[in-house]
Amino acid sequence: MKQVIQELKQYLLSGVSFAIPFIASGGILIAVAIAFAPMGETGPDFSNSPVLAHILSIGEAAFTLLLPVLAGYISYAIAGKPGLVAGFVGGYFASLPHEVAGRSANAGFLGALLAGLAAGYMVRWIKRLPVHKLLRPIMPILIIPILSALAIGTLMFFVSLPIANIMVSLDTWLRSMQASGSVALAMVLGAMIAFDMGGPVNKTAFFFGASMIEQGNYLVMGAVAAAICTPPLGMGLATFLSRRLWTEEQRESGIAAFGMGMIGITEGAIPFAAAEPIKVIPCIMAGSMTASVIAMLGGVGGHAPHGGPIVLPVVDHRFMYVVAIIAGTAVTALAINALKTFTANARESNV
Predict the structure, then answer these.
(1) DSSP of 214-263
(2) Do 69 and 109 meet the contact criterion of CB atoms below 8 Å apart?
(3) Long-range contacts from 157-160, C-beta under 8 angstroms, 24+ separation
(4) Residue 273 located in a structural domain
(5) How many domains in the chain?
């Protein structure tokens, strides 16, 4: 069992290593565009900045390729080149939005992990099937890609569509929670924002906060804005505080994550979560919940549908907004480092 888990971790790390340049370059380009664009009532305003808008579109293009690349190279790590097509197709479907009841949702980061693993193991199984010697030369370049792409594409279609329906139900649930208390709502929003880092659950919480702005309720978006940035900021801080716990590649990702957190790009935490989801996701959820609750209790109001320190000029109660972000970042960093230290010590004691 331990060997299976170790192999699975290696497959995920392989996919992450190929995805990191897309996250870093896309995130930095988006950060540059947002940082220099004037902040309007609806977020960064690019209407009078065509150069910044162009930079933003390039960064978004890199981010669009993120999920297919992540899934594709997880599959590649498991099954080699024949697994690339199915992995990329599955990752594409994970990023493809579905319209349900006027809302758009996709399978996101977690869907891409599922697609990559399913594609890789399926292709590995197909490769082991006995075939006639005349078919062997075309198996890896034609037959395996076609069969596996059809299977994984169909699987992701049936996975993504129910997720879209679930997201609509979550939005309805969030609206019903407004009457149950601000702290409970803030905790739920913070957990949702961090759970899949830009995926469908994250987007549901974000768009809920944005819709509250239109109704004159700025506290919800204030809580969401504080929660958005703490996953990448916290993971970045963690690599600075305990460098021995992290590989050189992860420390470099930490620098990029910290920069993305400053301008509210939650996806900066994806390289860490993809490599160690069971450890990282609970820690970033705890940090985002902390930030969200403090912002809600502090009366932080977000007037722009965006998050992170970059929206400070359009936030009410700015001091409490900064306190919320710092607290959430610290909780994330300390929690993940403590967990990694504990597991490392436990592993050494068992040797």
Answers:
(1) HTT--HHHHHHHHHHHHHHHHHHHHHHH-GGGS-HHHHHHHHHHHHHHHT
(2) no
(3) 157/93, 159/107, 159/111, 159/114, 160/93, 160/94, 160/96, 160/98, 160/105, 160/106, 160/107, 160/111
(4) yes
(5) 1
The whole-angstrom separation of Cα 296 and Cα 218 is 10
Residue 302 lies inside a defined structural domain of this protein: yes
Q: What is the DSSP letter of 282?
A: H
Q: How far apart are CA 327 and CA 227, in angstroms?
A: 10
Tens of each residue's pLDDT in the chain, 351 residues: 677 778 888 888 888 889 888 887 887 788 788 778 887 666 677 888 889 999 989 988 988 898 899 999 999 999 999 999 999 999 998 887 766 555 556 777 888 888 999 999 999 999 998 888 888 888 988 999 999 999 999 988 887 777 767 777 777 788 777 655 688 899 999 999 999 888 888 888 888 888 888 778 889 999 999 999 999 999 999 999 999 999 888 898 899 899 889 988 898 899 899 888 999 999 999 999 999 999 999 999 988 888 889 888 889 999 999 999 999 999 999 999 999 999 888 777 765
Best CA proximity match to 72, nearest among 43, 33, 112, 41: 112
Q: What is the domain range of residue 282?
A: 181-351
Is there a domain that residue 186 lies in?
Answer: yes
Structure tokens at 299: 């009366």
What are the residues facing 40 on neighbouring strands? 43
Distances (CA, A) of 160 to 163, 170, 315: 5, 15, 35
Distance between CA 312 and CA 30 in Å, rounded? 18
Q: Where are the alpha helices (DSSP H) in the chain?
A: 2-36, 50-64, 66-79, 84-95, 108-127, 144-177, 182-195, 200-214, 219-241, 248-262, 270-275, 277-297, 318-350
Could you give the CA distance from residue 272 to residue 275 in angstroms, rounded to a whole number? 5
Q: Is residue 276 part of a domain?
A: yes
**pTM of the predicted model over 0.85:** no
